[in-house]
Amino acid sequence: MNAHGTVHKYGDNIDTDVIIPARYLNTADHKELAAHCMEDIDGEFVKKVKPGDIMVGGANFGCGSSREHAPIAIKESGISCVIASTFARIFYRNSINIGLAILECPEASEKIDDNDEISVDFDTGIIKNITKNEEYKALPFPDFIKKIIASNGLLNSLK
User: Fold this and answer.
1) Which among 158, 60, 152, 75 is positioned nearest to 106, based on CA atoms?
2) pLDDT, tens digit, for every residue of 79-112?
3) pLDDT tens track for 7-52
4) Sign of the CA dihedral 90, 92, 96, 98?
5) Above 80 in pLDDT, residue 141?
């Protein structure tokens, strides 16, 4: 299981209201949520994101409310993986539950820049910055998390 794409980078304390503004939470339509992903912090995000791209954040990524709408909006927008220095715990768990790959790696968070091309090997935890010819090491996913992500979410992994 791997990811490869262009980076969309954000800073510290990116909260769930920035990821998907509360004014759009009156829908359960995943495509509609994705259409407004990151719009209050990056109005061009939905126009420039491509399937497989990777989001990189700083510390405390996903802080705020416990709703699953935020990781759903990110995943449905085409992002294949989120890397951050640290994550809010409920955001981390919600991401795994819906099958969004998510890795903590302070070094990658610090050194990767917006628009860098990177690849991620979930089996080894190796993050390669192709643009800068650098490698960073995150903890690889345990098998049960790989199964959840490969199954497109926790409920699907139980079938």
Assistant:
1) 60
2) 999 999 999 999 999 999 999 999 999 999 999 9
3) 999 999 999 999 999 999 998 899 999 999 999 999 999 999 999 9
4) positive
5) yes
3-state secondary structure the chain: CEEEEEEEECCCCCEHHHHCCHHHCCCCCHHHHHCCCCCCCCCCHHHHCCCCCEEEECCCECECCCCCHHHHHHHHHCCCEEEECCECHHHHHHHHHHCCEEEECHHHHHHCCCCCEEEEECCCCEEEECCCCEEEECCCCCHHHHHHHHCCCHHHHCC
The confidence score (pLDDT) of residue 41 equals 95
pTM beyond 0.90, yes or no = yes
Cα–Cα distance measured from residue 138 to residue 155, given in angstroms and rounded to the nearest whole number = 26
Paired tokens of 125: 């935890």
> In this structure, are residues 121 and 112 in contact, taking their beta carbons and an 8 Å threshold?
no
Residues 93 and 124: their CA atoms lie apart, in Å, by 21
User: How many C-beta atoms lie closer than 10 Å to residue 23's C-beta?
Assistant: 9
Q: Which two structure tokens, joined as six digits, stand for 24?
A: 């759009």
